[in-house]
Amino acid sequence: MEEKIWLAFAAALAVGLPSLATAWAQSRIGAAGAGTLAEKPELTGAIIIMVAIPETMVILGFVVAAMILLML
Amino acid sequence: MIIRMAKVEIVGPKQDLLSTLDLLHNRGIFQPDPQLTARVALTEDERLQTLVLDENELRERSFFQDLQERIIALLELLPEIDNGISPLQPLPVMTLLDELADQHLVTARDQTNILNECRRNAEALQHDLHFWEALEPLLKELPKSSSLELFGVTIRDSRQLQKLDTLLQERTQGRCYISSATTADGDLVGLIATDRKIAESLRETLTDERVPELSLPEELADLPLPQRITALQDRLKIQLGKCSQFEARLLEMSRRWRPIYRRAFAWLEERLALYRATATAYTTRLCFIIQGWMANDEVNRLIDDLNRAFAGRVVLEQQMILDEDLDQVPVMLRNPGYFAPFEIFSRLLPLPKYSSYDPTPLIGLFFPVLFGMILGDIGYGMILLLLAFFLARHFPSGTLFSNIGKVLGISALYTVVFGVLYGEFFGDLGETWLNLHPVWFDRGKAVVPMIVFSLTVGVAHILLGMTLGALAELRRHQPRKALLKLAMLVAVILAVLALVGWFYPQSWLSTGPLLIGIGILMPVLIAAEGLLAPLELLKTMGNIISYVRIMAIGFCSILLAMVANRLGGMTGDIMVGILVAGILHAFNLLLGVFAPTVHSLRLHYVEFFSKFLDLGGRRFEPWQKPHP
Question: Residue B606 needs a FRET pair 20 to 30 A away by CA distance; which of A59, B233, B249, B589 works?
């Protein structure tokens, strides 16, 4: 039972910490992107992609969390 | 794909320069590049120099510029009406047009000034009329007394009205009456009645409080209210009549002269564009030379056109594109039917260089596959197909939404295909209701196989990118760089095989020799590319791992779909269950369109294209007539 709690805690950390990091990075990119769009609306597509770039962190965190829960 | 370009040189006698430029403008297929001629090494006595206009040409250009400015000013004053453009040839009547433009400009300016004055007067009268019409019912409520003084005022809002009422009652010790109404314009107006003896002090109070009192022309001020309103209506009618009269005059002028001036403007713009274009030409004492770029398959047609127009006096010669020209070659992209809609994605990137690749066909090949791998659901795919069909049918071909429809349609087909492979129909609904089973594997349960599959896709995609990168270096005649890229490609293959051997030991796959192979390659790469070479290897491995998002986003999508089905089932009522599940599936579908699109594009832009695409090309911008 105790082992399961630790596994769940580890999985939560694996996805939670990268989520915070991603949120912080996206907030910075999003703010800069909004400023850019005010001057160059034609960059909308490129900025959507840029906002998506930090999502790699949370996606990898999610994969690690899934592996912790399903493989251990 | 990137259209093959030709470097061409056009040479002819100096007196044919303007006619040649005119022909090139009309054909719209040639982009001049004066830098090419500037790079040609010439001796002093060859006397190749940039073209300098003679005195007559300079005078003519200045005259045309001046006339064009006056015509622009005139066209701005004449009302816009869609009466086409005159077929008149302006050159023979240019002197007459010059005189007429002056006269018409003066007339149009005068008429416009009078019309504006009339409009201002009519607007003011309309405002007064609304004011007194709103006050009329209030006046009727007041007792008829000669000792009463009346003030009409405009009030900002109801709060100001309240404040004003309190203040006036205080100052006049209750000897005033204020009532309000709203005009047809929506303004709040007030009527203040007070004893004539204290009227002056009340007027001062209004001035102090900055409440504007409506003033009328003297001849109207003494009239009783009904006559006052009638008089205002009469005056307004006269002003509006005057406005219509001047509008009609300007309209008539516009109907008669606008097509002619529009034609003259277009001709002048073309003529002045030719003068500007002469700056790209080089001359000797007798000849001109223009160098530039055009599509390779148009060269023969242009040669024929020049021969027909100048009977062989002006000649075009195709030249070899040198290595140092490669960065200067302008880029024109043209993609056949299937790939054309995918240009909506490649347009988000800067233009590739001529020696690189057009990313559109690669996006067209791989984007729908990655989208299908991520979403992979028969039900969602069918809905997206319907949406794509609607977009493609409803919007004209070639427009943004039509292209989105086509891209969505292709991606939806792959979504259905992968849905069959994963056995998904609105998540696990297919399994529960239709006894649908995965042909390949159930990605909701087989997490590790899905991770391995995603990484395998990543390895294939990245290795293809690295191969294209090596080929691009060969096209740029850089065999050393091509060899280094191939060495890095081999190092990545060895590293991937070593990792496979580590996680899934096989008798035929020994990690030792593979690591030795990397150990041999690495010093070579470091010697050639510096200390960044090992980092490049790590970065490439990171790029491959990034493809694990195919599994992660797909896994989230199927979990959300399963949650929607479970929640729908838990309601205990068919209608409510369908509603709950429908809302959640709609939300999941929305995410299911957005997330796979963004992440598939990201895998292309960041991971795949960084291996071979050389961006920063110059767009092919041929000379064209300003008014086709």
Answer: B589
